[in-house]
Each structure stands twice: as structure tokens, then as C-alpha cells.
Amino acid sequence: MTPARALHAASLLPIAAVLSLAAARPAVAQAPAAPARVLVQAGSLIDGRSDTPRREVTIVVEGERIVEIVSGYRAVAAGETVVDLRQLTVVPGLIDMHVHLGGQLSPTSYIERFTLNPADMALQAASHARITLRAGFTTVRNLGDGYNVTVALRDAIRKGWVEGPRIYTAGKSLATTGGHADPTNGFAAALASDPGPAEGVLNGPEDARKAVRQRYKDGADLIKLTATGGVLSLARNPDNPQFTDDELSAVVATARDYGFAVAVHAHGAEGMKRAIRAGVDSIEHGTRLDDEAVTLMLEHGTYLVATLSAGRFTGEMAKVPGWFPEVVRPKAAAIGAVGAQGFARAYKAGVKIAFGTDTGVSPHGDNAKEFVYMVEAGMPPMKAIQAATLEAARLLRAESDLGSVEKGKLADLVAVRRDPLADVAALSDVAFVMKGGAIVKRP
What we know:
Layout: H1 3-11, H2 15-24, E1 37-45, E2 54-62, E3 65-71, E4 80-92, E5 94-99, H3 109-115, H4 118-134, E6 137-142, H5 149-159, E7 166-169, H6 205-218, E8 223-226, H7 245-257, E9 262-266, H8 269-278, E10 282-285, H9 291-300, E11 303-305, H10 308-317, H11 329-349, H12 369-376, H13 381-387, H14 390-396, E12 413-416, E13 430-435, E14 438-441
Parallel strand pairs: 1-4, 5-6, 6-7, 8-9, 9-10, 10-11
Antiparallel strand pairs: 1-2, 2-3, 4-12, 12-13, 13-14
């Protein structure tokens, strides 16, 4: 019987019989078993916790976790394999706390919402995820998407369908009508509908509670809201507060009920101060951070995720005629000029800082440029690395698994060719990536 006739015959059988035929087929060949242990030999180790590096270290990995860290290059036992990174510096897998995998800013970005389908955006996000992982970022926090593409991408990566970093996603950002994350901002009147809480646009405490609950229903990991205007939205003011105190309180209280952290986009000081008083976990951007906002952040333990890369990139692109819509261009130019000032003020005052780039505004794969901008603004290289490792893990509430090279933690390891403490730009030259014990990139 030909294969075609066999398939036709099988289609006429009851389901149980078809399943029996399938079970009788030869089993698919299994991948070879992973070595019992992998010995990662590091010439230098920056572990994410200590302020000084260690020289000549063996990191013992079994499965997805680190089981031992040994001084010197340990002898190889039967069944073990060696990854020779003796000429390299090893750091924990890097964590970017503010990315947008679902898109990439360009002169055509504003029209793509009309020309791309959700499936296009999902495939684009998968491509960006692979680039990000191979740039050394084994975990990211995605703060805003459309159509829940990063919820699906997060799950696909977990299942091994596609290659990418570990994703914590907020799904659709929350906004008020006309606010920075209102998806119909700038549309013609016939298209500028009121999306409502299900689409992340809320007005009043009841809408706020419904919007958070919808994110829970969608499968989000945290909440992102836009407490002030923004640079890239098609509206004039990037700084004005856009949530009332009672709306913010309703978002935060409901988020706590569902175990969500709350990340807040804020450029203007008044909007960020309202958000800090409401009890949010992090301020994203913090561009016009003032002394009162710094004091509040210290009192409440609020993190700053400064995303200096976005300000630098948009500031440069604002110089190019036609790159941005004209309503956006002056905002981009202004933010690019002052972005690092809030970061420097916060760092000097002792505000907790976690690494984030807003990549998707700046190009995917360039995430490590943020280290250079942080150091230029006054943060020592080791502190910048810790902001992208242990501090980021703390803000994620994932310190037990991520953020440092320690026994029992997930084996997320990155190696670079030069000493990042001598030149932090070395973190852009990634030679090796391991995520959860699986080698993604080799020298």
C-alpha cells in the first residue's frame, strides 16, 4: 500500500485505532544525553556579588544549575566535559530590565501598526529575542507589547521552540485616554476609538482594577504603566502627569493582590512622585528626577531603571530630518540632552539602580552600550555590572535563581574577551553564553 493510500485508510479508522497505529511507529531518535557535569574554566570571574573578581576558577554545572565553584582549574573526572574560558572574563548572565522585543524603532515604525499582522510582530519578536540572548542577556523584562506577543514568546522559549532569553513580560502597558500607551494616540478621529481597560486604557479606579485583572488573564508577569507623557507617542507633552492618585493606588493595590510588581514609565517629576507615593516598584527613565523624587525613592526603596540608551539613540536620530514625526522630534532632542542627569543624581544619592535600556527604541543587540553610558554618568564599572546582575534579580524577585554565580543558582554565564573593569565596553564583545546550563554561543 502506498503512503497516500495508508493515510487515507487511517483517516477512516476510529481515533483509538489511529492512535494505536501511531504508537506502533518507530520511536523518534532521542538526542544524546547531556554530560553529567560541565566544568567551566574561567580565567577571571566577576560573580555579581563580590566587589572584586576571582582569578582561575572552575564553575561546575550539572543540568541547569551551578553545583560547585572551585578555586583553580579542577581535574576532569570521568563523564565530565570542559569549557575552556581561561583567557576570558566570566560574568553572570546579564539582565536587561526594560526591553521591547516586539518592535524596532525606525522611520517606518509609526506606519507598521497598519501594515504588520500580529503574526508578523511575533516572528519579529522571536528574531529580536535570539539577538538579545547572543548579546549576553539571558533574562529580560519586556515592558509593553501588542497582541501579547511576548507572552507567547516567553512560553515558546520555555518550551524550547525558539531561542531567546528568559522573559518576564508586562503584556500591554497601561495608560489613560490619550496617554503615552494609548494605542490610538495620533490617529484620525474615525480611528481613534476608546480602547478601554481590556486594551490597557483606563480612567478611574474601577477601570484601573479591571486593567490589572485583564493582564492577569492575559498571562502577564508584572504591570507596566505610563505615569507621564512620553517621547515617542504622538502627543506634545512628554512630562505631564497622566494618572491621578486614586488611579495609581487602585493599580498598585490590585497588582499586589495578584502578586505583580509595578514598573512605571515616567519622565516628568510630578508623575513619578505620585507613582512612588503609591508604592510602585520601579521608575523607568526618571529623566527629570528632582531632589524630592530622590528622597521619596530612598524612603520607599523604589528602584530606578534609567534606560540611558534610549535617550542617546533618540537624541541622535532627532538630528536626522524626517526620521521622526515632527511632533516627536523636539521631544527626542530634549530628552537626549538631559537623560543622564537624573541617573547621576539618583546614583550619588544612593537610590537603588537596576540595569535597563529600552531596547527596541535603541537597536536590539546593542544593550551593553548602556554600561558605557552608566559609567560616563559616574557609576563605577563593577557597580554597573551588579546593576545588570544581582540588583536586577532583586527587582525581579528572582534572586534565589538569578543574578550571581553561586552554588544552587541557574547556570547563566557570559564570557567576554577583555576585562570589563578596565573598559566596560568589553561587555559588548561577548564570546560565550550559557543559559540554564545550555551553551548558546561558544568562543
